Amino acid sequence: MAAENSFRDYVAARLVGLSRAAYLLTGDRHLAEDLVQQALIQVASRWEKISAGGDPDPYVRRVLYHQHVSWWRRRRLVDRPQAELPETPVGDGASDIDTELTVRQALRRLSPKQRAVLVLRYFEDLTEVQTAEVLGCSVGTVKSNARDALARLRATAPELEDLRGAR
Amino acid sequence: MRMLEDLADEMPPARLPDDLWRAGRRLRRRRSVGYALAAVLVLVLAVTLPEWAANRKAAIVPADRPGAVPSRVEIPHLWQAAVGQWPAGPGGPAALVFFTGKTRYLEGTGVAVGANGSYRLIYQEIGESDGILTPDGRYYVAQGMRMVDLTTGEERQLSGEPIWGQPLAFSPDGTELLVGVSNDDDVITYGDDAIPDNDPEKPDDLIAVDMRTGAQRLVAVGRMNSYTTAAWSPDGTRIAAEGPVGRGDTSRRLSVMDARTGAPLLTVDNFAPDRRLAGRAAWTPDGGHLAILGFEGCAQACDQAAESARRWRLDLADANTGNIVDVPVPIADLPGEVVGWRDGRDAVLTYSPRSGANHRSLVALRRDGTVETLVDTPPGVSNLELPADLLRAGSFGGQPAEPSPWAAPAWAYLMAAAPVLLVLWIVRRVRRRQRRV
Fold first, then answer.
1. Cα B422 vs. chain centroid, distance in angstroms?
2. Is the Cβ pair B13, A1 closer than 8 Å?
């Protein structure tokens, strides 16, 4: 019971951040929701071990990003949760539509790993070493993926000014 | 980057199912079951793969190599797998089959010992007589001509209908099997005067069954009440058979006949009750003589002590005249059946000590009467059966074969694992309860 409560507390505290990261990774609200649910089910299945290790964030992040890459590889969605979802209204996020479209289209042209590197480095503000740990790859791979991702973004969406400052 | 922040703002918090935690627990249970199954699978593969590979090798390696027949066998484990039982699988061609009641079936059971040392049980119905091995050791021929393939575990009926009779001997080339087929009536019919209307006792037929097609060929019709022993001459042209004749089996007959036509070549009536054709390998390797087992001592209405007190000998009779032609070879203990010859000179026979009748071995009987044990068995073994090819090749002197405790059926593994799993489950329950407190 104590484990379940601490899991619920963690989810309540981190749901917004996880949902936002998932959205950036998938580019789709429904896929993002599925990704968060799948990741949290994985986390719940190992919660005692994860919470005993201290900060659960690194593990949760790893699950989220690996799940995303795995989905992309399989090109299909499997093992969706069967429970009925609460009928909560969702905002359509119609503001600033031009920017959103531009960024989304630009992100869509990236590989899942490049997108993951981009989100981890520039959205979650992780260092290159931390990003490499989450993705289970070398720091060199993180660097090259970040460089390639930014280059592609610059090429496909030159109007996004703040790319110029990114390294 | 600010644009990523802006884009992420478009995402509301993900909706989560109410049973998220329970879904995680379900996943955890599925994973635990998966790990347990994987562990069992790995264990089973680790245990069975080497044996399986050895069986495959045994199926390829010529069986009649020197040392293929183990010098000693042991009583199998209670949990020993039967032929073809998963996951142990078949044991490959047999080097020998022995029969014992000391198995989990608590009745007479065949135990096939493979050329690779594997042990597999052959279940026998209650009252089922012992079967015989084909010359190559691949098939066990059970009562009714049911063929058990020892290399695959498959069972099939050789002919369409079971042939109910006594399998006696294979032809030298292994293509035909002599069977004494009973013609007796199953029931006796009584008339109004309470006198039987029919005589249920009918003379038996001797047939040769083609081992490839199951076709039956009549060799001798109605010549004896039954066929106790039959032996095929080494060149395959003649058959010697022995059995009772006359009303109430009062007399016995030895007959040598043409193997193709069944035409009698020699008939010895009033064959003495203290002599018998020595077995399926009664013909000497040169085809000139027939081995006869004779004894001095009680011949009729004997108790067990009197039977055990018989003094046995091996005689050689001329196959053309039936006359004894050589000095008898004395036999110290109790002979069973001559099943082969070693170096063309010493008879190879099943053998029991006078002291313990329920103990069989395979020995070579030298001309001076001394015996050399070729296969020894523990007490409780009632019969031994060896493939003719190995007997002919003299492939004796192999390492004693020990039954592997791992060659077990799946239920034995489950039974062994159940207490461990139960303890683990209890420990887990206790820990969980302590954590809640």
1. 39
2. no
Structure-token pair, residue B206: 């001797």
Largest Cα–Cα separation, chain A: 52
Map tokens 């390696």 to a residue.
B61
Contacts of B9 in chain A (CB under 8 A): 20, 93
Kindly identify which residue of chain B lies nearest to residue A104, measuring between CA atoms.
B7
In sequence order, which residues have a C-beta less than 8 Å from that of residue B181 and are 6 or more positions away?
Answer: B163, B164, B165, B204, B205, B206, B207
Q: Who among A18, A83, A90 is closest to B12 (CB)? A: A90
SS3 A35: helix
* A167 or B409, greater pLDDT: B409
The answer to whether residue B106 neighbours chain A at the CB level (below 8 Å) is: no
Confirm or reject contact between B420 and chain A (CB < 8 A).
no
Rounded to whole angstroms, the Cα distance separating B293 from B297 reads: 13
Chain A residue whose CA is closest to B23? A41
Backbone angles phi, psi at A137, to 5 degrees: -135, 180
Q: Return the number of other C-beta atoms located less than 10 Å from residue B160's C-beta.
A: 7
Model pLDDT, residue B56: 66
Check CB contact under 8 Å for B15 and A21.
no
Contact B20, A8 (CB under 8 A): no
Q: Which residues have C-beta within 8 Å of that of residue B361, sequence separation ≥ 6? A: B350, B351, B352, B373, B374, B375, B376, B377, B384
The mean pLDDT value of chain A amounts to 78
CA B294 – CA B308 distance, rounded (Å): 14
Sheet (strand B119-122) strand order: B119-122, B109-114, B94-100, B381-385
pLDDT, residue A77, reads: 46
pLDDT in tens, A83-135: 444 444 444 444 456 666 677 777 777 888 888 888 888 888 888 898 888 88
Query: To the nearest whole angstrom, how far is the Cα of A147 from the nearest Cα of chain B?
Result: 15
Q: What is the mean pLDDT of residues A136-142?
A: 89
Q: Do A91 and B5 touch (CB under 8 A)?
A: no
Residues A66, A70, A75: CA angle, nearest 5 degrees: 150
Q: What is the DSSP string of B150-175?
A: TTT--EEESSSS---EEEEEE-TTSS
The one-letter amino acid code at A23 reads Y
Helix (H) or strand (E) holding B381: strand B381-385
Q: Report CB contact under 8 Å: B14, A19.
A: yes
First to last CA, chain A: 46
The single-letter DSSP state of residue B72 is: B
Closest listed residue to residue B339, CA positions, set B170, B173, B224: B170
Give pLDDT, residue A61: 86
Establish if B436 touches chain A: CB-CB under 8 angstroms: yes
- Asked if the Cβ–Cβ distance from B23 to A24 is below 8 Å, we say no
Distance from CA of B37 to the nearest CA of A (A): 19
Asked if the Cβ–Cβ distance from B3 to A19 is below 8 Å, we say no
Q: Which residues of chain B have pLDDT under 50?
A: none
- End-to-end Cα, chain B, rounded Å: 48
Smallest Cβ–Cβ distance between A45 and the set B1, B10, B27 belongs to: B27
- How far, CA to CA in Å, does B20 sit from each of A8, A36, B357? 9, 11, 72
Taking CA atoms, B302 is separated from B33, B126, B203, B296, B305, in Å, by: 65, 27, 26, 13, 8
